[in-house]
Amino acid sequence: MGASDLSVGRWGNSLAVRIPAKLAKELGVGEGSLLQAQVLGPARVRLSAKQPLDMKSFVARVRELRQTLPVTEPVVEEMRRKSRY
To answer: What is the value of pTM for the model shown?
Structure first.
């Protein structure tokens, strides 16, 4: 994929970049798709197509993140006792 010149226009109070149909097709994006923008430096940005998670991938990701959480003792009973006095 080569470089493309994209024009910036106004969209309400924001600015918007139009993606030509050919480039959108190469990226596999369409109306409603999510793009992730990463600032690489002064006047440099990277746009990446962000694929939505299906339910199976979402559950797998949550389980993976849950494994990184520390297991601690519950403190609810202690908090209840202290609030009664």
So the answer is: 0.49
Angle ∠(13,49,41) on CA atoms, nearest 5: 65
pLDDT per residue over 42-60, tens digit each?
A: 989 998 888 777 888 889 8
- Are the C-beta atoms of 51 and 30 separated by less than 8 Å? no
Adjacent-strand bridge partners of 17: 8
The answer to whether 52 and 46 are in contact (CB under 8 A) is: no
| CB atoms closer than 10 angstroms to residue 16 | 12
Which domains, and CATH codes, for the chain?
8-83 (2.10.260)
Tell me the residue type at 60. Answer: A
Q: How many CA atoms lie within 13 A of 34 on its CB side?
A: 5
